[in-house]
Amino acid sequence: MRETLPARALDTRHRQPRRKGFPALLAMAAVVLFMAGCAAIPTDGPVGTSDPVSTRSNSNKVDYQQYNPVAGASPESIIRGFIDSGTGIGDDFQTARQYLTAPLAQSWAADKRTLVYTNTVSVTPGKAKDSYLVKFDTVSSVDSTGVMTPAPAGSTDTIEMDLVQVDGEWRIAKTPDGVVLSQDTFNVLFKPVTLYFYDSTYTYGVPDVRWLAGTGSRTATSIVRDMLAGPAPYLKGAVFSAFPAGMSLARDSVSVNNGLAKVGLTAQPLLESSVQQRQRMHAQLLVSLRGAVNDVTEVQFLADDREVDMGGSGDAVPAMVIDNPVPSAQVGISKNELAMYDGGTVARVAGLGSVAALGPNEPAMSYNEKNFAFLSADGDHAFTVSAGHPPDNVASGVALTAPSFAPNGWLWTAAGDGSGMVFAANADPGAKAAAPVVLTVPWLTGREVTTFRISRDGTRALVISNAHGESQVSITGISVSGQVPKALTEPINLAHEGAPTIGVWTGETSVAAMAPSTTSEVAIQVLDFARPTSTLAPLKGATWLSAGAGLHDVHAQTPSQMYSQAGNSWQPAVKGLGQASYAG
Fold first, then answer.
1. Buried (b) or exposed (e) across 147-185, using 16+ Cβ within 10 A?
2. pLDDT score of 393
3. What is the pTM (predicted TM-score) of this model?
4. Which pLDDT value is given to residue 547?
5. Alpha-carbon span 147 to 141, nearest angstrom
């Protein structure tokens, strides 16, 4: 029997009831943006209008009109004109710079930060002479590489601007770098783009959603530039890039003609790379460009404007596995035993001995459908089991989260007692023995963890936790050495509604989440890095959730019945199976 992960010694007499958590990930990521309230409100021309454009179908060809400052404009008019001119992405905000003093117009870095707001912007005098405060309700912030961080509900931001008179006209002499955009304007001007990085085995593509403006070569250039800059902060240390550190674009432009993207890179690091590395660079960039720029079908690397050697057909590397698929079957509990559901029938897992004496709960299944895991009746022990092998207690802790398999066969669970302890063990009985791992995660200390789910690429975890009555939905990266987990990265915290406690991955950038109830109607939220939050039809008494290949494959479960989606409603799928889960 393998080594068992230890439980923290503590008094459990005051333990809170176990709650199953949910990784309600909502992704948004950000990019070089700029200030605008909606369509600009003119002060020296006719008022223009534009129809709202959905983020999902946006061609990014909407042309907002900017208006120059007018003579005699008040300080507030100058401030609002500056904000409204933030839609001038195509010409580096030349109109917006006219609202600034000459020195500030030269130094102001519009792409440093973008704040996305809702409702209205207020402008009030500040404490100092000729100082003004610009206040608004913040939805999210976007950094210069397109990574968006949602703001907690009720967030506000205040920007201080100082004005001076230049030749008798008010101009802005001090304002922070970056811009402010209304949410509607942001959704029109920018679109989500997915960059891909490698997992540690160079097998899976790990998505990193950014928000970019423009089309064609402009988007291609932004993608290459951001990819060379590396992954989003919460993925650093967890993912890998085929591009060597220090590599950059030889010139700040990527041409796209007849489907071919020509990418000129700094010559020395490109020529010093191996053919295999160049092949991986090609695979990484091509899948990212194809998903964002419709007419890109091939990538060519250039050093000093000359094509580099990419080797022959025998040097090709496997394509990235994108959105790793899960098997169609689910594992659940039926008559106190592990059972498989294939969409038609429920049957005990073949070859497994009885586990009824352990009171199995919240089962999990590996991607090869050969290894299984479950929690004991008290929720404090995680067991693995497979055909021909008895149950093995691989982790012990207080109020463990439902076990979750990574594609490499490692099993994960987290303690729900505020200790910050996360457990991982290689659950494959045929694999080379590896000692179980116990991680103490500083940012989870003091938080009741209710869900810990591994992504289908094995590099990220969705974590739901609670402290002082407030829930937190986080995405963290998993740092490994070889295949052995070493640490969890500082997470990105995601916006969500209510207090979901159960959640599952529905795709590479999305999850479904809910707060279970045996008596009330339960609405399932769908949270996606690249789309607005949506809600599935409510289902009374929903207490569990599972998801396979996409939103159409989401299943809600009551204590007596599993339901599947039928359009905008739920239809009964099967009875006699509880807490069913897909692989992962």
1. bbbbbeeebeeebebbbeeeeeebbbbebeebbbbbbbb
2. 96
3. 0.86
4. 95
5. 8
554 and 566 Cβ atoms separated by less than 8 Å: no
Residues linked to residue 520 through DSSP beta bridges, in sequence order: none
CA pair distance 154, 564, nearest whole angstrom: 35
| 578 SS3 class | strand
CA distance 194 to 282: 16
User: Is the CB of residue 410 less than 8 Å from the CB of residue 426?
Assistant: yes
Tokens coding 258: 């007849």
Cα-based angle 431, 437, 441 (whole degrees, multiple of 5): 145
b (16+ CB within 10 A) / e for 544-574 = bbbbbeebebbbbbbeebbbebeeeebeebb
Residue type, 190: F
Closest among 471, 578, 460, 577 to 525, alpha carbons compared? 471
Q: Which amino acid is at 24?
A: A
Q: Containing H/E element for 269?
A: helix 267-272
Ramachandran angles phi, psi of 93, nearest 5°: 60, 45
Closest by CA to 414, choosing from 362, 347, 356, 371, is 362
Q: How many angstroms separate the CA atoms of 520 and 498, rounded?
A: 14
Contact status, residue 85 vs residue 96, Cβ threshold 8 Å:
yes
Q: Look at the alpha carbons of 42, 44, 47, 50 in this order and tell me if their dihedral is positive or negative.
A: negative
Provide CB contacts within 8 A for 464, sequence distance 6+: 21, 22, 23, 24, 449, 450, 451, 471, 472, 473, 474, 500, 501, 503, 513
**Judging by DSSP bridges, how do beta strands 470-481 and 492-494 pair with one another?**
antiparallel
Structure tokens at 534: 């949506």
- Per-residue model confidence (pLDDT) at position 432: 65
CA 560 to chain CA mean position, Å: 33
Structure tokens at 263: 């990418």
Specify whether the backbone of 259 is left (phi greater than 0), alpha (psi in -120 to 50) or beta: left
Give the chain's end-to-end CA distance (angstroms, integer): 24
436 within 8 A of 442, measured Cβ to Cβ:
no
Enter the tokens of residue 254: 């990527």
As averages over each run of 10 residues, the pLDDT of the chain (584 residues) reads 39 35 31 33 29 32 80 98 90 94 97 93 97 97 90 93 98 97 92 96 97 79 95 97 95 92 96 96 96 90 95 92 96 97 94 96 97 98 95 96 97 97 90 84 97 97 93 93 94 88 92 93 92 91 94 93 92 96 96
Check residue 37 and give its pLDDT.
35
Amino acid, single-letter form, for residue 272: E
Q: Is 169 helix (H, G, I), strand (E, B) or coil?
A: strand
Q: What is the pLDDT of residue 55?
A: 31
